[in-house]
Design brief:
By secondary structure, the protein is of the alpha+beta class. It has two domains: 2-215, Nucleotidyltransferase, domain 5 (2-Layer Sandwich); 231-409, Nucleotidyltransferase, domain 5. It is built from 13 helices and 25 strands. The chain has helices spanning 49-66, 111-119, 128-137, 150-159, 168-171, 186-191, 219-227, 278-293, 303-312, 347-373, 385-388, 391-401, 413-423, and strands at 2-8, 12-19, 25-32, 46-47, 69-76, 82-84, 94-95, 105-106, 109-110, 146-148, 165-167, 177-178, 183-184, 197-199, 204-208, 211-214, 217-218, 234-239, 243-249, 258-261, 267-273, 319-321, 336-338, 379-383, 405-406. β2 (12-19) and β3 form a beta hairpin.
């Protein structure tokens, strides 16, 4: 028998099949996410929740025809939210973690600031609580009677459930969450009564054609679970569309980092970067545009050449701030390039500088976390395509963090973690 783990990312939908007892990977499939829907405002970032679920269900059917599945584990992009009616049907799109409607100012005050003050919890741009309250104030989706994350919505669709049950790892990402009591705080529920039910424990949501479907984990927690488990001697660093550095701790401490519910009563202390690996993708698009000015057009990505140049050079004093999409706390902040000189104003130095900037944004949070908990991990575990496919970045990270880094053979760590989490609760 086999176990399937499915992860709904921002740009891809990934599946990993593992052998039930050995947890050896039998198959990996990655499909493109349907992508973002067109919107009139640049700060809106929404996706088609129904289309995502349709693709995911068809992928499960395809895999189950090839492998007899014992169960299915789920994971999905965090912070985003799907409004539902009382029968569990989507009445709106998936408002993703990149949607910044709640950060728009009204008479000089952003809704995120108001909600942070009222709930006593950090509510940032892209958090589901802000999105839902904003929509309610604007009378958007008046028939919304409940809400779900994309992972929990998929679990509902697969099992035919009419109400959402979400894991604490997912729930806390919406904002307004009381970490000590592991529930939405009273003020958050008063301001947004359609917030979903929460479980701090593992749960089976139901069956899909006789196959048990597990509660969905947040993708950050699923990635850590797949690569680290509960080992506190290792820290996880992930660079996909966004980026995170995560350490396991037994208390929900806070600083320039974010505490998140994990598993088995533990917490993750996490520093996030909103642009993360997308910074490198933006640079690749820029270099491709420069080449087109010279009449050079190619469909082949430039990443191999970029990685080689980065490995062969230093930044030469060029410093790139890769906060191109701001931060959770300062959504209006933007990146910068400084230290330019006639010697380092080259593509190679710019490429190296972007990789160092991506690393530095996470390192500053890592340093704060380790100072708070009073201990250093002995190793880093790297994941996400930006790391897995780029040896130069691996070396930059290992040098800056002053720690050896292992890169597991598993590229889709969130899907793998979801599979292992479900499999561990079958016996």
């Amino acid at each position: 028998m086999s176990v399937l783990g499915l992860d709904i990312g921002t740009t891809t939908i990934s599946a990993v099949v593992i052998e039930d007892h050995t947890r050896q990977i039998q198959k990996t499939v990655t499909l493109p996410n349907p992508g973002f829907l067109p919107t009139p405002s640049s700060w809106e970032r929404i996706q088609d929740a129904e289309a995502i679920c349709d693709i995911s269900a068809k992928l499960i059917e395809r895999i189950s025809a090839e492998y007899p599945l014992r169960c299915v584990g789920l994971s999905g992009q965090m912070h985003g939210v799907v409004p539902l009616d009382s029968d569990g049907r989507a009445v709106g799109p998936l408002y993703t973690w990149q949607d910044a409607r709640a950060a728009q100012t009204d008479e000089g005050v952003a809704l995120t600031d108001y909600l942070t003050e009222r709930t006593g919890t950090r509510v940032c741009a892209g958090y589901g609580l802000g999105t839902l309250v904003w929509n309610a104030q604007k009378a958007i989706h008046p028939h919304a009677a409940q809400a779900a994350t994309i992972g929990s919505f998929l679990a509902m669709r697969l099992t035919g459930k009419k109400s959402a049950l979400i894991h604490a790892s997912d729930a806390a990402s919406l904002g307004g969450y009381d970490l000590l009591n592991n529930s939405f705080c009273a003020e958050a529920l008063r301001l947004c009564p359609i917030l979903p039910r929460v479980t701090t424990d593992f749960a089976w949501i139901g069956d899909y054609h006789g196959i048990p479907v597990a509660v969905s984990l947040g993708d950050n927690q699923a990635s850590v679970y797949g690569a680290v488990g509960t080992d506190r001697t290792r820290a996880m660093i992930n660079l996909g569309t966004g980026g995170q550095v995560s350490l396991i701790h037994d208390e929900p401490l806070s600083g320039t980092f974010e505490p998140r519910p994990y598993v088995d009563g533990l917490y993750l202390l996490v520093r996030c970067s909103l642009c993360g690996g997308r910074s490198y993708a933006l640079l690749e698009e820029f270099l491709r545009a420069c080449a087109s000015l010279c009449g050079v057009r190619t469909e082949k990505p430039l990443y191999d050449a970029m990685n080689r140049l980065a490995d062969e050079t230093e930044s030469g004093g060029l410093i790139v701030d890769t906060r191109f999409e701001g931060t959770r706390e300062e959504p209006e902040r933007r990146g910068a390039i400084t230290g330019l000189s006639s010697a380092n104003f080259t593509p190679a130095c710019l490429i190296r500088g972007v990789l160092e900037g991506m690393t530095e944004e996470l390192y500053s949070g890592f340093r704060d976390i380790t100072q708070h908990i009073g201990r250093l991990p002995s190793r880093l575990i790297g994941s996400g395509n930006a790391i897995v496919l780029n040896p130069a970045l691996q070396n930059i990270i290992s040098k800056r963090f002053a720690l050896p880094m292992d890169v597991p053979d598993v590229q889709e760590t969130a899907a793998f973690g979801a599979a292992v989490y479900a499999q561990s609760h079958m016996d």
